[in-house]
From TrEMBL:
One of its GO terms (molecular function) is oligopeptide transmembrane transporter activity. It holds the Pfam family PTR2. This is Solute carrier family 15 member 2. It comes from Poecilia mexicana. The keyword Calcium does not apply. It is found in: Apical cell membrane. Residues 673-704 are annotated as: Disordered. One of its GO terms (biological process) is protein transport. The chain crosses the membrane at residues 52-71, 83-105, 111-132, 153-173, 185-206, 265-283, 314-337, 349-370, 608-627, 639-663. GO terms for cellular component: apical plasma membrane. The keyword Protein transport applies. Its main location: membrane.
Length: 704
């Protein structure tokens, strides 16, 4: 018998399991928090590919639990499976970290190491996933049902405690620590690798205190053989007109009734799992689509404090720590006082509704977020804006059209881009610039789907036009883009924060560069041998793209700021309602489902059913993978689609749950062990017998 914590029925061994889970989840969620931005910023993939690979990895992490369950139940046992696959897990983290070092090979090497590392991580985290929770449950004596229920809540809270810290810390390591002249992804991946080493060491340290259940044999193989035999026997006997109560009963000629009954129990639950992937399809978008949404929002809280877009994910884990005790101690008891039966499946259905509402909130946020986004021009068209640097108003006519109807004032910030028809993939267009009642012609070649700025300035004897290509895509990390246009006769060097700009002379434009968001009141610059210590740029805000024109006024160099792409004007706090709704849904759906999977499984198949539960997460990520790559919808429409689909699935799940009868696997096990020849109780007798079992115990037989 394992040692107990002082004065309780809790085994001491669960302390090591909880700490191990905390460190492992820190490792996993810390790495995953920065993964989408790693794909975008470091590997330079587009948003749809980054989302697809992110969810392909997430899906793989939840497909591999079935492998871990088979290894644990039929070969090594849970303890050794956790040890060996944790070693694979550590190796994967190390490979992933090395792949994020810029000096290690070229882009193909980085991609290869990253993908290999992610595969090993998926094998490790997925392989141990069904074992750790079940291994923790194994530490309790059968009669300590309430303690085991509490363990699952503590276990889940340790997951989210690790997630809170990791999603807070790793984005800081990524963005605030610079290595190799850029964001330090190698460190952001290296720290989670170190925590996985700690997780493995803690688990090994407690090995002498664990209650280790030996492997039960190849349970999954035996189940598959039994099902196959039942199908085959039924098919062969169909000509004889024989009937049996259940199609699995056709296996009684070869397999014991206890195994058949246990398979029936598992299959009833697995059928109930069919609609569940839709919940996870929504839930796992926190790290992909919701993070991408955050990059286009205002991340500032006051003048001095800002968060990073990938840090917003910590809100889910933080709210879990708050919501779990609130639901357990306040909400569920209050609902019980209203004489509403609280069953696991009712909790899960309600959780689905909350997740759908979360995506409704995300849709409303997205509709407002995209108002600051400049949509690329469609085929056979370009985008165009005009900067007037001449000493007076100008009027611009394009090929005799009326694209710019109003006069353009000197150094006027363009309000928006105009669509420029080309009627071809590329075309040279003529412009007529009217300045001081004189028309000056100029012509430039345009390419479809691109954005341009036409810069009009004086040059003896009249007006000259200069065309520059613009960058209208907002940065993935939310920082602003800046470029400088120099009207002075000498080149300039300007340093904005840690970013240096070289601006050629005489009406030349520097390239866009990303700078940290902030108020720049005195920017250092050099002009020939002179220093400009007080170049005022003002606030360079989240998500904006700026063209800063350098002019000389009264002997001083002055910066005139133009906003090519509007700054993010929707505050990140507007994401809080969607995170709160989704987290409330998770508390009712995920924690309940974890316990439900354990309680409804026969002793010999607990890890298999746990793996089946985790497999629903894998298929949820497959759904996102398909939609991200195939649907091609605007983001707010995609959010709305997911929310609507989950509501429809919730109706189906509720209908299925209504006809599900909860089972008591321990009682079933005792029945077969004590009296194998006893006649089975019919379903009506079982239902009557189980009606008196309290609702708060996991082995209840109440219908939803």
């Amino acid at each position: 018998m394992s040692k107990k914590l002082c004065g309780t029925n809790y085994p001491t061994s669960i302390c090591f399991i909880v700490v191990n889970e905390f460190c492992e989840r820190f490792s996993y969620y810390g790495m995953k928090a920065v993964l989408t931005l790693y794909f975008l910023s470091y590997l330079k993939w587009d948003k749809d590919l980054s989302t697809a690979i992110y969810h392909a990895f997430s899906g793989l992490c939840y497909f591999t639990p079935i492998l871990g369950a088979v290894i644990a139940d039929s070969w090594l046992g849970k303890f050794k499976t956790i040890i060996y696959l944790s070693i694979v897990y550590v190796i994967g983290h190390v490979v992933k970290s090395v792949g994020a070092i810029p000096t290690v090979g070229n882009t193909d090497v980085h991609i290869g190491l990253s993908m290999f590392g992610l595969i090993l991580i998926a094998l490790g985290t997925g392989g141990i996933k069904p074992c750790v929770a079940a291994f923790g449950g194994d530490q309790f004596e059968e009669e300590h049902i309430k303690e085991r229920q509490k363990f699952f809540s503590i276990f889940y809270m340790s997951i989210n405690a690790g997630s809170v810290l990791s999603t807070l810390i790793t984005p800081i390591l990524r963005g605030d620590v610079k290595c190799f002249g850029d964001d330090c992804y190698a460190l952001a991946f290296g720290v989670p690798a170190a925590l996985m080493v700690v997780a493995l060491a803690v688990f090994i340290f407690g090995s002498g205190m664990y209650k280790k259940t030996p492997p039960q044999g190849n349970v999954l193989g035996e189940v598959c053989k039994c099902i196959g035999f039942a199908i085959k026997n039924r098919w062969n006997s169909s000509k004889d007109g024989l009937k049996r109560k259940h199609w699995l009963d056709w296996a009684e000629d070869k397999y014991p009734k206890r195994l058949i009954q246990e398979i029936k129990m598992v299959l009833r639950v697995l059928v109930l799992y069919i609609p569940l992937p839709m919940f996870w399809a929504l839930f796992d978008q926190q790290g992909s689509r919701w993070t991408l949404q955050a990059t286009r929002m205002n991340l500032a809280f006051g003048e001095s404090f800002t968060i990073k877009p990938d840090q917003m994910q910590l809100l889910n884990a933080l709210l879990i720590l708050v919501f779990v005790p609130i639901f357990d101690l306040i909400i569920y008891p209050l609902v019980g006082l209203c004489r509403i039966k609280i069953t696991p499946l009712r909790k899960m259905a309600t959780g689905m509704i909350f997740a759908a509402l979360a995506f409704g909130a995300a849709t409303l946020v997205e509709i407002n977020v995209v108002k600051t986004v400049v949509e690329p021009a469609p085929a056979d068209q370009s985008l165009l804006q005009v900067f007037n640097l001449a000493d007076g108003d100008v009027s611009v006519k394009v090929a005799g059209g009326n694209l710019f109807q109003d006069p353009i004032k000197k150094l006027q910030d363009p309000s928006a881009y105009e669509l420029l028809p080309l009627a071809a993939p590329n075309k040279e267009l003529r412009f007529d610039v009217m300045f001081k009642e004189t028309s000056y012609p100029c012509s430039h070649e345009f390419e479809e789907r691109k954005a341009y700025s036409l810069i009009v300035h004086e040059k003896a004897p009249g007006i000259e036009c200069k065309l520059v290509e613009d960058y209208i895509t907002k940065n993935e990390d939310g920082n602003p883009n800046v470029r400088f246009f120099n009207t002075l006769p000498e080149a300039m060097n300007i340093t904005v924060g840690e970013t240096e700009f070289y601006v050629p002379q005489k009406y030349s434009m520097s390239a866009y560069s990303s700078v940290n968001r902030g108020l720049y009141a005195a920017v250092r610059c050099s002009h020939q041998s002179k220093q400009c210590e007080n170049l005022y740029l003002g606030l360079l805000d989240f998500g904006a793209s700026y063209s800063i024109v350098l002019v000389e006024e009264e002997g001083k160099i002055v910066a005139k700021k133009m906003e090519d792409v509007k700054a993010n004007n929707v505050h990140i706090a507007w994401q809080i309602p969607q995170y709160a709704l989704l987290t409330a849904g998770e508390v009712m759906f995920s924690i309940t489902g974890l316990e439900f999977s354990y309680s409804q499984a026969p002793n010999s198949m607990k890890s298999v059913l746990q793996a089946g539960w985790l497999l629903t997460v894998a298929f949820g990520n497959v759904i996102v993978l398909i939609v991200a790559e195939g649907a091609g919808l605007e983001q707010w429409k995609e959010f709305l689609l997911f929310g609507g689909l989950l509501l429809g699935v919730c109706v189906i799940f509720s209908f299925m749950a209504h006809f599900y009868t909860y089972v008591d696997p321990e009682q079933l096990s005792k029945m077969y062990a004590g009296d194998s020849g006893k006649e089975e109780e019919d379903d009506d007798d079982k239902k009557k017998k189980h009606d008196d079992i309290p609702l708060n115990e996991k082995e209840t037989s109440t219908k939803m």
